[in-house]
Design a protein that fits this description.
Shape: globular
Distance between the termini: 56 Å
Number of strands: 9
Order of helices and strands: HEEEEEEEEE
Number of helices: 1
Number of domains: 1
Strand order of the largest sheet: 1-2-3-7-6
Length: 144
């Protein structure tokens, strides 16, 4: 009888622990996907946003099949990621770093950064320079 009671208690504790872990992992991060691009239709991507303990936001942008910016019309030099914040500000948060693997020629891009502002949405533009203060008119991807 005691053994059965201990088994039920440990099963209940394991279930409770699992539920707490799932809630912690899902409530702290948010994932957004980019809509299909008219400029680069094969491009896909997502943005994961996680609020840290110090109230900063960790942003992780990933793309695949994003053509080299020099192949666009007109050709550009870099892709810049822009963030819209909860106070309706638009900020340049960095450039996409692209690469392809030895086995696969799929272009993969990423950007990891931290921001103090709460992100609402993201978009990517093709630019001549990564240090631009305002987005150009060649928007390639935007989140839903």
């Amino acid at each position: 009888m005691k053994k059965l009671h201990l088994q039920k208690s440990s099963s209940l504790l394991l279930l409770l622990f699992t539920m707490v872990v799932v809630v912690m992992l899902t409530s702290c991060s948010r994932k957004m996907t980019f809509e299909t691009s008219r400029v680069v239709p094969a491009a896909k991507g997502s943005v994961a946003v996680k609020k840290g303990k110090n109230n900063n936001y960790q942003v992780n942008v990933k793309t695949i099949n994003l053509a080299k910016p020099g192949n666009l019309t007109p050709p550009k030099n870099v892709y810049v990621v822009w963030m819209k914040t909860d106070d309706n500000d638009i900020r340049n948060i960095g450039m996409i770093k692209s690469s392809s693997g030895i086995i696969s020629h799929t272009l993969k891009g990423n950007l990891k950064t931290v921001t103090t502002s709460k992100p609402i949405s993201f978009f990517i533009t093709a630019e001549n320079d990564g240090d631009v203060q305002y987005p150009g008119n060649q928007e390639v991807l935007q989140t839903k």
